[in-house]
From TrEMBL:
CDD domains: NrdH (cd02976). PANTHER family: GLUTAREDOXIN, GLUTAREDOXIN-LIKE PROTEIN NRDH. It comes from Chengkuizengella marina. Residues 5-64 form the Glutaredoxin domain. This is Glutaredoxin family protein.
Amino acid sequence: MKNQITVYTTNTCPYCLMLKNFLNEQGLPFEEINLQNDAGAAQKLIKTTGQLGVPQAEVNGEWVLGFDRNKILELIHK
């Protein structure tokens, strides 16, 4: 199964950069949605997860709040 990964970020978040670098190092393609450029996505994120903090990642339909490499790898290999 192909993994579906969407990463929600902002321009000033160091953990967002760490998460994107980690995914790239793992060879995992992802879609990035920058909340500073997309206010609608920010509202959708709050409605969906109840959180606005970044980074958040949706990995194969499940949410990971913050940069949690172990949780991401767990969801990738599920």
